[in-house]
Write a structure and sequence with these properties.
Helices cover about 10% and strands about 35% of the residues. It is mainly beta. Bound molecules: manganese (II) ion.
């Protein structure tokens, strides 16, 4: 039996609706600028005929379950919410066709891709990596995983409120690259594995939160999510 110098990190996991087993997390992929109105508000419109989707990753250790209270993170004064539909991958796939992409889907969740917008934009404009803007401790929030094996979601309202005031309201039928296209394209870069999460991008209306704010959100037909922003450490 392998012996370790210290106790290895725990396996990160999420509850699965209707099951006792939990969903172990392998990797967290995020899609950038995947709703036209959000790309415009970020000052970077997308021309699908000329561009490909792009991705960044967040460490699985950044995962936090819906319902948590998280400390307002250090080194930012512009901490943003991004409400997203999340794909939970349940089968391996590499260079998967769009026609076969559904076979990788175990289910879906509602997610928050929390972002240090100030650091992200400095990094973007200086051509630096986004890690400190995106890979934030307790910055990848996710609901329970809702099993929908083989289902491709094509529409459904997606919305977010801060302190019960609506901030984001759109529909996942407005994704620039849809579920089939994302799975097929991402699988040209990575051997997708069970336990991978794919945050599919946020609609318009992103904005800042402050300590004490209550975030609520939902993807119609999938799940709800909640997060309380606590005091800074
Ligand atoms: Mn995002």
């Amino acid at each position: 039996m392998t012996q370790y110098l210290f106790v290895p990190p725990a396996v990160l996991s999420l509850p699965i609706r209707g099951r006792a087993e939990r969903f172990p997390i392998h990797r967290i992929f995020c899609v950038g600028r995947n709703y036209h109105a959000h790309a415009v508000e970020m000052g970077r419109p997308v021309d699908k005929s000329m561009e490909q989707p792009f991705y960044f990753t967040k460490s699985p250790q950044t995962l936090v379950e819906s319902g948590a209270t998280v400390a307002y993170p250090p080194r930012t004064s512009n901490y943003h919410y991004e409400m997203e539909l999340v794909i939970a991958v349940g089968r391996p796939g590499f260079r998967v066709s769009e026609a076969n992409a559904h076979a990788l889907v175990y289910g879906y969740a509602a997610g928050l891709d929390m972002t240090r917008r100030d650091l992200q934009l400095v990094a973007r404009d200086k051509g630096r990596p986004w890690d400190t803007g995106k890979d934030i401790e307790q910055g990848s929030v996710c609901s329970e995983i809702v099993p929908m094996p083989g289902v491709v979601i094509e529409r459904g309202a997606i919305a977010l409120e801060v302190n019960a005031q609506t901030k984001q309201s759109s529909n996942v039928d407005k994704l620039i690259w849809n579920i089939r296209e994302l799975i097929a394209d991402l699988s040209t870069y990575y051997h997708l594995q069970p336990g991978d999460l794919i945050y599919t991008g946020t609609p318009e209306g992103v904005g800042a939160v402050l300590p004490g704010d209550q975030i609520t959100g939902r993807v119609e037909g999938v799940a709800e999510i909640a997060l309380c922003v606590g005091a800074p450490e």
